[in-house]
Amino acid sequence: MSLFNSLLNTFIPLFVAMDVFAALGIFISLTEGMDRKAVKGIIRDSVLTGLFVSLGFIAVGEAVFRILGITTNDFKIAGGLVLLVVSVRDMLGESERRRPSGNFGIVPIGVPLIVGPAVLTTLIVLVDHYGAVYTIISLIANLAFVWLSFNKAEAVVKVFGKSVLVLSKLMLLMLAAIAVMMIRMGLEGLLAGAH
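and the corresponding structure tokens:
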């Protein structure tokens, strides 16, 4: 049960942070009119980019923090504040990071649409709490879900219709709640260290 709980506790925050429902609409608009082979190439490039950027961030993120003297609690508070701002901004209106232009295979679909600040912040906190193994397994599972959703993008939008937008807003609300939780945990950690 502990294994299942750890996987669930790492999968859900990453699922919320990736917000595949918001990415689907942009993905469809960018790939409209393209042949299937080209679309598959874009999907592959974007998911692999997301994976490599995430793994790189997990590998060097903590080392950089150690060099700079940033504690995990500091990062939880700062990361929570960033996530809170991102989620509130996106809930209240379209964000610039969701309006990509130019070459879109690696940038902006891979980064920052699939793996942006919210995902990177969440990864570091999850690695600290649950370890790299559970976090990486959940990351790969989430990216597999993104890959599947992009491959079946039009079918997903047909099934969910306008509720895709509602689901995206719900994900943003959950992201805001996770952000508040991260800030609270960081403050509790700082207070515990002060005593």
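(Above: one complete record from the training split.) The chain has nine helices and no strands.
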